[in-house]
Design brief:
This protein is mainly β. The protein is built from one helix and 17 strands. The longest helix is centred in the N-terminal third of the chain and has 5 residues.
Length: about 200
């Protein structure tokens, strides 16, 4: 049923605009569906509200489904920033400054060349400083077994523990591949080091 689908929606704010004294939040509906007057929960802040208007393709609509780019207005005039998550109150959103992720190392630099320096992580349209705290394992290309590793080299697929400088909201990749993915950026030259 559409009610069951709408009970598990998630929307990450990419931008906000004001039109005719009404604030609209724009982004892609990542999962579920939304309806006018639906209750929502905004993170960070744990703020409850309701959807008052939904625009899709510059048209006012009563509902929208996952995969659509939409603009939504809510009952309260709240300044919600880029990277904030608007979701159904029952949606599981993880809040933490540490997580374990599987990454593919793109850079020609090995991880050891970075000398444990602070890196930039792009999660949910936000840039957050952090570090790779530990290398848990690496995939052996010859037999696809997981093995211990002390460094990360070009094209390695590794599981790492990541420590961020601040709390962030995210989902498991299996539940939401947009909100559960990230990239790692070298702060010195702004090149992408890895994706996960």
């Amino acid at each position: 049923s559409s009610n069951a689908k709408s009970n598990d929606f998630q929307f990450t704010v990419q931008s906000s605009i004001k039109h005719n004294q009404q604030r609209f939040y724009q982004g892609n509906l990542e999962s579920g569906s939304i309806n006018k007057h639906q209750e929502i929960l905004i993170q960070p802040g744990n703020i409850k509200s309701k959807i008052t208007e939904i625009y899709h393709s510059a048209k006012l609509v009563a509902n929208a489904d996952a995969g659509n780019a939409v603009s939504i207005a809510i009952a309260e005039d709240i300044d919600i920033s880029r990277g904030s998550i608007i979701a159904s109150p029952t949606k599981q959103i993880i809040k933490n400054n540490k997580f374990i992720g599987k990454i593919i190392w793109f850079s020609e630099k090995s991880f050891s060349q970075l000398a444990n320096s602070e890196l930039i992580f792009k999660l949910n349209y936000k840039y957050i400083k952090g570090k790779i705290a530990d290398i848990i394992n690496s995939v052996n290309y010859n037999n696809l077994n997981l093995e211990e590793a002390s460094d990360i080299n070009p094209n390695d697929i590794v599981t790492v523990e990541i420590s961020l400088s601040e709390q962030s909201y995210f989902s498991l990749f299996e539940d939401n591949n947009t909100n559960g993915s990230f990239i790692i950026i070298d702060p010195i030259d702004n090149n992408i080091l890895a994706g996960g």
